[in-house]
Amino acid sequence: MGLNEKPLSTLHEKSSFNLEDFDVPSGREESWRFTPLSRLKGLHKGTAAAGHITVTVDAAPEVTVETVGRDDARLGQSFAPADRVSAQAWNSFEKATVITVPREAVASKPTVVTLTGSGEGAAFGHLLIKVEPMAEAVIVLEHVGSAVYADNVEFVVGDGATLKVISLQDWNDDAVHVSQHHAQIAKDATFKSFVVTLGGDLVRLSPSVTYTAPGGDADLSGVYFVDAGQHLEHRLLVDHSQPTCKSNVDYRGALQGQDAHAVWIGDVIIRVEAEGTDTYELNRNLILTDGARADSVPNLEILTGEVAGAGHASASGRLDDEHLFYLQARGIPYDEAKRLVIRGFLGQLIEKIELDELRERVFAKVEAELAR
Question: Per its UniProt record, what InterPro entries does this chain match (predicted)?
């Protein structure tokens, strides 16, 4: 498949399965200007040495899991790669994992997909999660170990179906991960995504959403904690091309240490035919120390005047002295007051994780970050 004839917007001009359609990034391109290319270990130019990722699935009994080859016709039906690394991943993976939730099935437990890096060379992967009409499921994606990894993940949500996804990036400190997540939402379907990014040397995730019929609802949330030297980047795209669909985006991050760098790009497009759209996107960052940097760029492109609601906001700053003073005035030591404020800031989103064990695990990891 070649280049799309109709670009999504001036910010998303290309999508293609052909690697040759994408130039090797130089860092001057809008889509790569924040990413330190020298730390990608060759993923962006095809020079990365071969490695391995182990994929294990603990599936709900109602769910089917398959390992398929590149020629499986179900792969690549909902998306096309939007950058060179995504195209490299598409052209380089050998086996894909396909998870199917049958029509009207309600999964009795979460399905957990664990991707473990071996620490040797670069690996490429592909995952397809298909939720058939009127079905419901929760999927957890866990990324652990050391890896140089690029992959594409497809979420296909059928009519009236509900899919909740939690993606946890808990890599070792030396890991590099570049991933494109794409959700295709059908009529009256619901897609909820929660991204937690804590580990890795460089992590760049690009979640995107498209709608195939009216009534779709997407909720994209995320938290990240960036330590000294880490680069954590999230680039979101919500493409409203159908009427009366909804989307809500809320990402929050905390940064500490020299050269801690967070990047958040939020693009929402409301096309001419997407009348009745209701959308909002928000990104907030807490800068905890000198030497940390947060780049936050919300973009909203509206091509119709008939919308139910549309807005965006971004804020990056330090801890509120008034909040800290209020707690200290009540006998709480400064360090504890600081932890409470940060925990509350991130916790408003973390509380949305419906799995008790995972929610407490994320809270514990945030506490460990603060202790550092």
Answer: Fe-S_cluster_assembly_SufBD, SUF_FeS_clus_asmbl_SufBD_core, SUF_FeS_clus_asmbl_SufBD_sf, SUF_FeS_clus_asmbl_SufD
